[in-house]
Design goal:
about 550 residues; alpha/beta; GMP Synthetase, Chain A, domain 3; 15 helices
């Protein structure tokens, strides 16, 4: 069953219920005015503060775009790239591509011009849908985009480049009837891109079966109903945000796309839209808690009692953060999900709200998934030993598109996906992430797992964020360096950190302390390659300290 059938079902059974809401708080004219009053008010630049779309409108717009693509000669398996910020048009475009039998190619909105060209070429994209934020970047490589036959611009007519067609005008004249394109579970559906932490990203090919598996997994884990309201903040181009939204698609519940991540905007969106489920990244949750502690946010000014679930994914979650969150939101369920784009996003490992006593673990095999931990020869390790986490299920990618060598490195012949994450399993079967395989620090023959050190340091009252990386060292090979981002308005010294680290075993203590901001990508993952490049260019030749 293709996932498009869920959209058609809700359009048929609940046509007038709201499916999607877009909130753009940057256009809010008066801080304390509720967004519901903005429904028909337009900002000076032509953007609305709040837009909404019913299930009928959603399906109609997807049908219109599918028919537009077919009228331009799109065939089954052609690739259509999407380069948009989160907006009300994003998901209808996505589903329009699927309904046309084409393959949708979501693209990272942070890509520079050369990355845009690289990914379009790698995916063999035939068409590009893009917004005004990306015109200059597309312009810069336009002469080189010889494979693109059609450009569709999602924005105001006055800003539409001469080489592009205006999306809203073109779809207006297209049929609202679903095209007669048969889809099967085995048809290719989407190409997502890896995070690109080791250079340019790889193209990850998924079929319709994988999309459906992700939707069923998400809904099984979090029990979304039509009464739930999901607040979606992360970018929709990433599998994390998309697949969590798929749970709402299965249930037919409303979702809110919030274009902003400030703590005030998040709580106001929860309050005004009556959100019941929110997926946060670690930095956003940390910012909310810090804002509450500073008194910048007063919780009694918001309606939060309906907020039943906060869940986090995309990176290891410090247990200290969860403890603080429960103190501030005691009636709320908490969950964490583990996944990667190669396994169609979150859910292949899942903690479960009933396992709050296991905070620190990423959980057990998710709904419809199998897991195991293996050594370098791909054999299972003993219980409690550290090895590489492997997962298996319908959500595993088909391949790295046009890269059989890279595919063979992580995908076994019997369908197991090697995640590249080092993990261990306890006696109850719960899995604990230790670190990324490539991030393990080997110092003097000892393996150090940065996540363990990061979790310890985050408990320091003055630390807002921290990243631990390995720096080259003449005698020890590598040493652990902690890049520490101090909380706003606080001062912290190296001596304070070193004294705090006396609580760690000697070999785990960072031997270099650097006070600086911790860079993260749009999905909240620490950009450690950037830090290694920034601080590891010169070999450290001084003797290792004996802290």
């Amino acid at each position: 069953m293709p996932i498009t059938e869920y959209l058609e079902k809700h359009a048929r059974l609940h046509p007038d219920e709201v499916a999607l809401v877009e909130i753009n708080p940057a256009n809010q004219p008066e801080k304390n005015t509720t967004w519901r009053e903005y429904n028909l008010i337009e900002a000076a630049e032509g953007q609305r503060y709040r837009r909404e779309m019913t299930w009928r409108d959603f399906d109609v717009r997807a049908n219109r775009f599918a028919n537009l693509l077919l009228s331009r000669g799109v065939k089954r398996g052609d690739k259509v790239a999407v380069l948009l910020m989160n907006c009300l048009e994003w998901l209808p475009v996505y589903f329009g591509v699927l309904k046309a039998g084409a393959i949708v190619v979501p693209m990272n909105y942070r890509y520079a011009s050369d990355e845009i060209k690289y990914c379009l070429d790698l995916a063999d994209a035939r068409m590009l849908v893009f917004g005004p934020e990306f015109t200059e970047r597309v312009d810069a490589v336009l002469p080189e985009l010889t494979g693109i036959t059609d450009f569709f611009f999602v924005g105001k007519e006055a800003e539409c480049p001469a080489y592009a067609s205006l999306y809203n005008k073109m779809v207006y004249y297209c049929s609202t009837i679903a095209p007669a394109v048969e889809l099967s579970d085995d048809d290719y559906a989407a190409i997502y891109f890896s995070s690109g932490t080791t250079g340019f990203p790889k193209a990850i090919l998924h079929d319709h079966r994988a999309l459906m598996a992700s939707a069923k997994t998400e809904q099984a884990h979090h029990g979304q109903t039509r009464d739930d309201v999901f607040l979606c903040i992360p970018p929709l181009y990433h599998t994390g945000a998309k697949m969590h939204w798929f749970g709402s698609l299965v249930a037919g519940g409303k979702s809110v796309l919030l274009r902003g991540v400030s703590p005030e905007w998040i709580l106001q969106a929860v309050s005004e839209e009556r959100a019941t489920i929110v997926w946060l990244l670690v930095p956003w949750a940390q910012d909310i808690l810090d804002s509450i502690d500073r008194g910048d946010l007063k919780m009694d000014e918001y309606r939060l009692s309906q907020w039943r679930l906060m869940h986090i994914g995309a990176q290891p979650v410090p247990p200290s953060l969860v403890k603080r969150w429960q103190e501030k939101f005691p009636g709320q369920d908490y969950d964490t999900n583990y996944g990667l784009s190669e396994s169609i996003g979150p859910g292949c490992v899942h903690l479960g709200v009933e396992n709050i006593h296991k905070v620190g673990a990423i959980g057990v095999a998710g709904y419809g998934w199998e897991t195991k931990i293996v050594d370098e020869h791909r054999n299972p390790v003993a219980q409690g030993d550290v090895g590489e986490l492997a997962v298996k299920g319908d959500g595993v990618m088909k391949c790295y598109y046009k890269n059989p060598t890279a595919t063979a490195e992580i995908l076994t012949e019997d369908g197991w996906l090697l995640t590249g994450d080092m993990a261990r399993m306890d006696e109850e079967g719960f899995i604990y992430l230790v670190d990324r395989k490539k991030d393990v620090i080997i110092t003097g023959g000892e393996n150090l797992y940065p996540v363990q050190i990061e979790d310890f340091l985050r408990a320091h009252e003055k630390i807002s964020d921290v990243a631990v990386i390995g720096l080259p060292h003449d005698r020890l090979g590598e040493i652990a360096a902690a890049i520490i981002q101090v909380k706003e308005g606080m001062d912290c010294t190296e001596e304070e950190i070193q004294e705090f680290c006396l609580g760690l075993p000697r070999y785990k203590r960072p031997r270099k302390i650097i006070f600086a901001d911790v860079p993260r990508n749009p999905t909240g993952k620490i950009e450690k390659p950037k830090l290694r490049e920034r601080y590891g260019a010169d070999r450290l030749v001084e003797s290792a300290t004996s802290n």
